[in-house]
Amino acid sequence: MSFRIVALVAFGCAVAVAENPEVQSGLRVRDFLPGKPISRAQRPAPLSAVVENLGDAAVAVTVSLGFPENVALQSAPEPATLTLEPMEERLFTWTVQADAAMQAGFTVEACVDGAVIASAPLSIPFLSPMPLKSQEYIPEPVPAESPLLIGAHHCPLWEADKPQMWSQIRKHPERTPALGFYAQDNPEIADWETKWAAEHGIDFFIYCWYRTSQGGPVTTQFSSAIHEALFKSRYADKMRFTIMWENQSRGRAGVADENDLMQNLLPFWMENYFKHPSYLKVDNRPVLFIYRPEFLIDDLGGVEKVVQAFDKMRQACKEQGFDGLYLLGEYRGLDPKHLTLMKSLGLDYTFAYCWYVPNNPAPEQAIASQMDQIRKTQELGILPQVVTVSQAWSGWRDEGTIWKIPPNEFKSLLSQAGGFVSALPPNELGSRMLLLDNWNEWGEGHYIAPYREFGFGYLDAVREVLANAPAAHEDLIPEDIGFGPYDTAYAAYMQREIEERAKSRQQVTKPGAQEEGLIAWWAFDEETDAAWVQDSSGKRLGGMMRGAKRAPGIDGNALLCQGGAVDVPPATRLSPTSALTISCWVKTDVAGQDNKWIVNRVFGGGTNTGYRLGVLGGKPCFEVPQTEWSHHLSAEEALPMGRWVHLAGTFDGQVMRVYIDGMERGSMVRPGPVNSNGFNLCIGSYEVGHAAHFTGLVDEVRLYGRALSAEEVRAQHAALATKTE
Description:
The chain has three domains: about 5-125, Immunoglobulins (Immunoglobulin-like); about 155-470, Glycosidases (TIM Barrel, Alpha-Beta Barrel); about 505-725, Jelly Rolls, CATH 2.60.120. The strands form seven sheets. Strands 12, 13, 14, 15, 16, 17, 18, 19, 20 and 23 form a ten-stranded mixed β-sheet that branches. Strands 26, 29, 30, 32, 37, 38, 39 and 41 form an eight-stranded antiparallel β-sheet that branches. The protein is of the alpha+beta class.
């Protein structure tokens, strides 16, 4: 591989003129990432990137790294000429060092015959230089005092046994926390969070709290951040905490009745939290936040029952030596009827977990919208509020409105919110408290904890605007004192992913794999517990099992669809352009499934591309869109229940057809090519983790780059039809 290490403005590769060259060539650069969560100037900073060939033919590749002035290259891969075989990938690593604090842009380019075919940019902030100083432990926090009680919502999703939760953040490497892709059960994690929060004026965390079942002894999930980390941390007394009861999952997260609340849930909170010396008490009252408090109406049997239960909770707190209990209900809207309902339940205050701001607003619009909602809540005069300010939003899948307020602009929001709070009636809790959204909701895109893109920018904004503390202070990251990394569980997970992805790309064939035009064939016949699915056509277009399982199928194993899916990475072959066929066997007992997808390659950002096969209004549906979400061909009859059914969708460049058990059951004229894309292919659902998943069994999924004839579809059905009897 020949590496040219040159300035960003002077790459030696010419720009390829081919439209969408990555899709056409199959060459792709992915996972171009720094090796450290946060980098400092005058320290080595590793970078790495994966170059893969998703095309049909071997290709000779030249890779180059571009970097700016004032950044020195310390190491690079040995020069070599490398040929990547189809579905082969290689990891490339470099080490660079910045002279001073800066925002540095890097680019990896993969060139073929002197033309740039694939590239990936990466922007890395380098913090100011700081000498390394080994210490025995994390230095004790030096709190920055604030006239307000400043709280931050805390999202404890980052469990050691759920490393896949970080997958969304890998799509946004700029979000990488200063702690890396950590496991939250480590007491050192809690001590770093306490230090960073306390030293920037934050007084308490509001941990999202999840019950896993109701009607019996309390069991929880995502609770290690409190029980394993905070409670065992050295600096637990330097920071207060409270909980937000996540009451949204009906039948599981709430209460079965009043007895469950008073005999199970409240005693658990009392002993584990309310009595803890670091739990947030105001006016000698524990403070409890409740998400979806209105769901308690059904749980407890009516509004009056909720009022009675809340009164009993307050009395129980008094019997334990407190002066009562503050109850705050979450609501992020301006509907007077809903606020009136919340008041009628006996809640003391309303608060927002986050504020919804529509239409992808600019920072100044996001600030204005939040302040407008805060003011209007107050003007309604129905239920007093405790104010929350939100820093950003993206959603877990980058859906809907997406926005971010950078640190400098965030200062303005903090200043306006602080002024608003100070003008509230002094007898209200809202005049003494301000909530920040969010400390660490990395997946949904709102966070103020130190992270790669802006370092300590948001925390420094909080300290500057809301705390009575000198501007000069020292912001440490774990590396500064020889601590970390904290991503051991995630690193092990990624190593398994690499090994399992390699297994998914092994060349395997099944009798019949030489069939004309066959692109891929997913038969699910691997070992029952295998984390990968191989391509039985021999073309190595395998995928990964994501929350899915296998079960006995019509021929060997099948994919059991209950919310999980198989994720097949992008490949040039997955985009036939002139004609295609999707065929499979399915079995379900769930009638009337609607907008549920069995094979999908139509996603947001490309809803006029690709193809999919699923169930719409209870009927098999085949789509090859030409415009946004167009050309859904539904069968004339419903999907049969309780037995194996053969489905096929064909498209010959002019007409789409859908088949059930070898018989044509619908057609649609749709002249023109299949619009290609560079997306993954998902089997068993719309996409991994999505609600639009098929429920049942899926087996023998085949994709062709041609339209099978009616006779061929009938023959494919007949080949296994005897096994349906």
